[in-house]
Amino acid sequence: MRRIDDPIARRIQAMTGREKFLKENQWYYYLMASDALHGSKVTVNGREMLMFASYSYLDLIGHPRINAAAKAAIDEFSTGTHGVRLLAGTTRLHLELEETIARFKKTDAAVTYSSGFVTNMAAIAALTGRHDFVFSDRLNHASIVDGCLLSMAKFERFKHNDMDDLERKLSSVDPAAGKLVITDAVFSMDGDIINLPAMYDLCRKYGAWLMVDEAHSLGVLGKTGHGIEEHFGMEGCIDIKMGTLSKTIPSVGGYIAGDAELIGYLKHASRPFIFSAALPPAAVAAAKEAFHVIEDEPERVHKAQHNMRYFIDRLQAAGFNTLNTETCIVPIICGSEEKAWEMARLSQAEDIFVLPVVSPAVPEGLSRLRANVTAAHSIDEIDYAVDVFTRAAKKVGVL
Ligand SMILES: *Cc1c(COP(=O)(O)O)cnc(C)c1O
Questions:
Q1: Of 30, 65, 232, 271, which is least surrounded by CB within 10 A?
Q2: What is the Cα–Cα distance from 288 to 100, expressed in whole angstroms?
């Protein structure tokens, strides 16, 4: 018999209670199932809504070339693989995808994993160990945090995008220790961009490896969407280039791109590559084709960049606090959780699919709507959304 105060049961009950409270207040908008997705529109419970929560920044979901590549891969290789990459799971398509990524990211080589989350855990844990140091921005993605914890390395978290704090931490450790600095290129809740030039200088000065997670910068930053190095004109400055195949790239999986020895090491030393199944052929073929489409259709990158500037400018002109975003992720700060939930409810009632983000994902008092703008939106759709957010904010007291 389990005790009445069993700690595991208590943890589950606390979450159950929170979910019930939100549902009773009509504030629960998570896990909504869509029936159809097309461009900027999503159909939910038979109702067509404007999508403002998508990571499909270049509107590549449903691209005919990408769909065709996935279907051809099923015809050729079927739906699964024969196991892990290292043994029987590698197909020709896997190698072609890795070559494509390496070319796109201008590196010697690349390795793919079954998700972006797993990629961060795999790489960080394979590269560092108990006597090394990892330096991680406080606002880095959960998969980076988990990777650092898993690695057992000494875990130093520096203040968000604060290069003085990073230098203080780098300079205070044993100069002979292994050092890895890790950051998101674009922060997934705030939309701001890491100060890569200063971070690169510090890594050089202190002999640290530099790893950058490009989940939200691939396709979004740089004139041709090649990411953060292109944005800053600093090609080749990042040692370990991580990205996901599930956001701009409409598939699933994650990658590390870098020099040949690094990638060879990861293929033989990172546990999820050795002990977890290879990506399915359709996902691999879709991802590979998507990289080619980005190069062939640069207008998608221009449209995403134009839309993000327009959306942010209009929100700021309306008086919203959007923090320091310069990308497709646009936080609309609401303050308390209740205000964020109520803003979401009012926006959803006017057919905007947008979601609130609250603690612990963001600090208390900085609860927000997290609105994502993409290349799929028209200017009219962005105008409509800004009007809906403004009306809601006035009702709730955010504006
Ligand atoms: C989404 C995300 C990931 C995880 O990628 P998945 O492919 O969804 O597992 C990793 N890092 C950042 C910054 C992300 O936003």
A1: 30
A2: 7
Tokens of 71: 């279907």
Check whether 1 has a pLDDT greater than 80.
no
How high is the pLDDT of residue 36? Answer: 87
Same domain flag for 267 and 311: no
Total domains in the chain come to 2
Residue 369 near residue 342 (C-beta atoms within 8 A): no
Last residue of a domain, one of 249, 268, 296: 296
Q: Catalytic residue numbers?
A: 188, 216, 247
Same domain, 191 and 132: yes
Neighbouring C-beta atoms of residue 290, cutoff 10 Å: 24
The pairs formed by 45-50 with CB atoms below 8 angstroms and a separation of 24 or more are 47/351, 48/351, 49/348, 49/351, 49/352, 49/353, 50/351, 50/352, 50/353, 50/377, 50/381, 50/384, 50/385
Average pLDDT score over residue span 325-350 = 97
Mean pLDDT of all residues belonging to the chain: 97
Question: Do 303 and 241 fall into the same domain?
Answer: no
Pocket test for ligand 1, best of 57, 117, 187, 242 (most atoms within 8 A of CB): 117
370 within ligand 1 shell (Cβ under 6 A) = no
In the three-class reduction of DSSP (H, G, I as helix; E, B as strand; rest coil), residue 179 is classed as: strand
Start-to-end C-alpha separation, the chain: 53
Task: Looking at the structure, tell me whether residues 241 and 282 fall in a common domain.
Answer: yes
Task: Specify if 326 maps to a domain.
Answer: yes
Are residue 117 and residue 227 in the same domain, yes or no? yes
pTM attached to this predicted model? 0.97
Question: Does the residue 230 lie in any domain?
Answer: yes
- Per-residue pLDDT at 196: 98
In a domain? residue 13: no
DSSP 270: -
Out of 13-22, 153-162, 275-284, pick the least confident.
13-22
CA of 30 to the centre of ligand 1 (A): 18
Mutate to test the pocket of ligand 1, among 244, 245, 329 (most ligand atoms within 8 A of CB): 244
> Quick one: 46 and 95 in the same domain?
no
CATH code of the domain containing 340: 3.90.1150.10
Among 296, 323, 341, residue at a domain's last position: 296
In whole angstroms, give the CA distance from residue 388 to residue 373.
15
Residue with the smallest CA separation from ligand 1 atom 2 is 215
4 is a domain residue? no
Task: For ligand 1, atom 5, name the residue with the nearest CA.
Answer: 116
Backbone angles phi, psi at 180, to 5 degrees: -130, 125
